[in-house]
Amino acid sequence: MLFRLLQKNKSYYYKPQNFISVSNLIFRIRKNAAGMASICLLCSMALVSLIGGISLYKGGREYLNAVAAKPYVVDISRGEKEVEASQKTVQELWETEDRILAGIEEKYGLSQKGARNYRYVLLPLQEEKAPYKINQPTQGIEIPKAYLTVIDQSAYKVMTGKSENLKETEVLLYDPSGSSKEKQVTLEGQTYQIKEQLDTDIISGNISRGCPTW
Predict the structure, then answer these.
(1) DSSP 116-175
(2) How confident is the model over 124-150, as pLDDT tens digits?
(3) What are phi and psi of 137, to 5 degrees?
(4) Of 49, 72, 126, 211, whose CB has the highest number of CB atoms within 10 Å?
(5) How far is Cα 62 from Cα 78, in angstroms, rounded to an integer?
(6) Domain spans of the chain?
(7) Single pTM value for the model
(8) Cβ atoms within 10 A of the Cβ of 186, count?
């Protein structure tokens, strides 16, 4: 653009020295346009690679804590029907899990020294915000909008080292978005009082999932 403007300035351009210099530069710019475009693309890719590398380096630990909380994780899942069938004796269910863990230890030569055991319920939700309703597909497969991880006070103590004395209708709530300011929350028509809004994700590094947590 600069050289085009100089060309339009007749009093400047139509002088032998200026005419040759400006024409020469315009010719060289045209000739090297492809090379300059390649340099721009390479610089852009270098910036993308640099930013991507920094992001992976900074977020790698957080990602690992979310998908692999511990070096070894044994996750024993129970379906809804199986849990309902075992409601008559929860102790039997726990004893079965203990036997499964003992068999895994013996088979793979692992040790429970330093191990932590948590029992939690993962609930698929119809909406991301309260009032929460459990997602119950009626036709085909419906993808839940969010998941709610529910833990009891004993698991909370193991994870944080803190003891809580909650009443039957009291909960501690962690919202990953940090936008929840409610004093109570409703799940399937049952209202729970929020005793405290947690500002730390206690699930990360303990359970291999990143979900809103009670």
Answers:
(1) ----EEEEEES-SSSSB-B---SSS----SEEEEEE-HHHHHHHHS------TTEEEEE-
(2) 888 777 677 777 665 555 677 888 888
(3) -60, 135
(4) 211
(5) 27
(6) 2-67, 70-117, 119-214
(7) 0.55
(8) 13
